[in-house]
Amino acid sequence: MEPVLLVDARDGWVKLTLNRPARLNAFDEALHVALAAALDDIAANDAVRAVLLTGAGRGFCAGQDLSAVPTAPDGRHDLGSVVTRFYNPLIMRLRRLERPIVCAVNGVAAGAGANLAFACDIVLAARSAKFIQAFAKIGLVPDSGGTWTLPRLVGDARARALMMLGEPMSAEQAETWGAIWKVCDDNALVAEAETLTAHLATQPTFALARTKRLLNGSSTADLVHQLDGELDAQRACGATPDYAEGVSAFTEKRTPRFTGRAK
Ligand code: T3D
User: What is each CA distance from 129 to 111, 170, 250, in whole angstroms?
Assistant: First the structure.
């Protein structure tokens, strides 16, 4: 049987492909478990300096597999257990992973699938892709951090309408509204995303990780707190070999060779 997650180790980076194309890569328990394990392996491996997340087939991810929702002993669907065990930890794993995560949205991203994409660091989308806050259509609230992430990306008015109406946001709207980094032609998406991830894998990983940490905290911190955080991070970055290399390369007018290491 095909694995539900394809893990493809490249030179300094890993490509993760959600692989349940017949269900538009909707999450069942096996996919959650495999993705969590892969992200934990990456976190523990300093040789991996960037991650690319995408989907197999014509969809990116249709959120929860609606045919695989566990039931509580009283026979009701127990959505709380799925969110507690899987979706909330997944979003925190992505946000806390000290590597840049590129997301290549190759097709429809619905429900938790859309909010999974928005939890990544740099999102590219195929021109034909769309993002759907599908939750209200089945009587649910947006989860996987969507009510936190989407208003910060596109503004409150757009987030409210997208979530209450469940209407698709096209890839081009997503780019124009600031929800994603870039739209790519469908047949160029994979190559562009791979090139970008490979580039990130050669960059100063420690500094990128500290940048990610600062950005994660910025929307809830006040300026004084944020300035303190930048001070700590800058001090730590200033002690890395990558800072020395970056300055040398600048002075010598050559491309820097970063190791990504803290020491
Ligand atoms: O436990 C919990 O539920 C709590 C957590 C919730 C998180 C969530 O993500 S809730 C939201 C769940 N997702 C959805 O509601 C989206 C459901 N899917 C759709 O609305 C549509 O499929 C799409 C708009 C995403 C795509 O439409 P379209 O017309 O391009 O494709 P399709 O024909 O609807 O789907 C293709 C196949 O994928 C189809 O199977 P079939 O008929 O060919 O055998 C369809 O049933 C299957 N599929 C699509 N989404 C899901 C799914 N199967 C299971 N679960 C899905 N979410």
Answer: 14, 6, 39
